[in-house]
Design brief:
Layout: H1 3-9, H2 11-34, H3 39-47, H4 56-65, H5 74-100, H6 105-136, H7 142-167, H8 173-195, H9 213-222, H10 224-241, H11 247-255, H12 259-263, H13 265-288, H14 290-313, H15 320-344, H16 351-384, H17 387-404, H18 406-409, H19 414-432
Helix pairs in contact: 2-3, 2-7, 2-8, 3-6, 4-6, 4-16, 5-6, 5-8, 6-16, 7-13, 7-15, 9-19, 10-16, 10-17, 13-14, 13-15, 14-15, 14-17, 16-17
């Protein structure tokens, strides 16, 4: 994988980063503030896209077994991208529809349906995209490829902020529609440029040599190594991102920081993430190994969350920004090591199946983490009646959880995984015949 080829492949992640800003940063604010919708309703409607992750396993499995004209991944990326772009273009109109009907149950159902469609497109394309990267790379270069393509997603987030600020310098329905139509076009064009010609057409693998979906699902549930890594990945993503709904309110509630100051938390975190990705993709994962690097990222993040808990309980503001940078650093190292390890935990004939399983673990963890921070905060507030202690509880749970999941990571072994999957696959196929 040459650098120009990796950069071109990363354009899909660049587009995904831009889209995340528009949906989770701009549209949710417009629906709450300008359109006057209830925040819980807005969260449920936009958050519905996480539940579409259930399509990742069956469609990932289908991409292994059912190529189109010899292509296993590209057609599924194209299908998912088309669905994502369609839902993106329609998103502002659904927001207006919700506002006109005052967030009624039927309007909310339509809104959730649209974001389920968007999520289905995202997870179909995303699973096939991760499978394509796995197909195109060898184990030794995956950390570098992941670091570059995910750094491009961070760059896409910054580009999304810039685009949103330029187009939405002031709110109007016309400007919101224009912004999302432009984004739909960018999603299609950048993804097409990213994947066009990357995959080589190959002859379809005979169906009788591949497990059925029922057999594949059974393989996922009975494989001990698969269970270990699914639980680790779910726990890692959950405990890393419980803070995502609590971090900025924490700055305001505990230290009285204004919106501009708490928004700057994202800059400290993103710088840390990029430094961590560069370290892990450049030399750390290669020198220590992907598994050790992933564990190191979890430990660094746990230390950062412990520092944030200390800063919150002790009202010590000077510690907050360095702790957020360290948190980002750990996240960057964890992300590159974990994703590269995830790509190794596949077998050649069933890459899409396992990428679907790992995608599902991440989506479920992200969805639950979105609500988890608020729930933990409210529990702490109810127990102690103190905002400082309530946020300290959130951060301490994250620190303890990240240290706890290392026990699961220690059980993960790529060689054992492949041997176990090969043995179980053979037995399942033998049973079927």
């Amino acid at each position: 994988m040459t650098l120009p080829r990796i950069l071109r492949l990363g354009l899909r992640q660049f587009a995904a980063g831009m889209l995340s800003v528009l949906t989770l940063g701009i549209l949710n604010r417009v629906m709450k503030i300008e359109l006057g919708l209830n925040l819980t309703l807005v969260s449920l409607v936009i958050g519905a896209h996480y539940f579409a992750a259930v399509v990742a396993i069956p469609l990932g499995h289908r991409s292994d077994r059912r190529p189109w004209r010899g292509y296993h991944r590209t057609p599924y990326i194209a299908l998912g991208t088309a669905l994502t772009a369609l839902a993106t273009a329609l998103a502002p109109f659904v927001a207006f529809f919700l506002a006109r009907h005052s967030g009624s149950l039927s309007a909310a159902a339509i809104g959730m349906g649209l974001f389920l469609l968007m999520g289905a497109g995202m997870y179909v394309a995303g699973t096939a995209y991760l499978s394509l990267i796995t197909d195109l790379t060898v184990e030794g270069e995956r950390s570098k490829v992941v670091a570059i393509t995910w750094a491009m997603m961070m760059a896409g987030i910054l580009a999304g902020v810039f685009l949103g600020v330029r187009v939405m310098s002031y709110y109007s329905p016309e400007r919101l529609v224009t912004l999302f139509l432009v984004m739909a076009g960018l999603v299609v064009s950048l993804t097409a440029l990213a994947v066009w010609g990357q995959e080589r057409a190959e002859a379809a693998r005979p169906a009788e040599q591949a497990p059925s979906l029922k057999q594949a699902l059974r393989l996922l549930t009975i494989s001990q190594q698969t269970r270990f890594f699914f639980a680790f990945l779910f726990g890692g993503i959950f405990f890393l991102f419980v803070q995502q709904m609590a971090l900025e309110p924490f700055g305001g509630d505990v230290f009285g920081l204004d919106v501009k100051e708490t928004t700057q938390f994202n800059a400290y975190q993103m710088v840390g993430v990029l430094v961590g990705m560069g370290m892990s993709g450049g030399w750390l994962a290669k020198r220590l190994g992907k598994k050790t690097a992933t564990g190191l990222g979890a430990v660094i993040s746990a230390i950062a969350f412990a520092l944030l808990a200390w800063a919150s309980a002790g009202w010590y503001l000077p510690l907050v920004r360095p702790a957020i940078f360290i948190m980002g650093l750990g996240m960057g190292i964890f992300t590159v090591g974990g994703l590269a390890l995830m790509m190794d935990l596949t077998v050649k004939e069933q890459v899409g199946l396992f990428m679907g399983a790992w995608t599902l673990a991440q989506a479920l963890a992200n969805g639950l983490a979105s609500a988890g921070g608020g729930i933990l905060h409210d529990v702490g507030l109810g127990l102690w009646g103190s905002e400082a202690r309530a946020y300290a509880l959130v951060f301490l749970v994250e620190a303890g959880g990240l240290l706890g999941i290392i026990a699961l990571l220690l059980q993960v072994d790529v060689a054992k995984f492949r041997a176990e999957v090969a043995k179980l696959s053979w037995h399942l196929l033998a049973e079927a015949t």
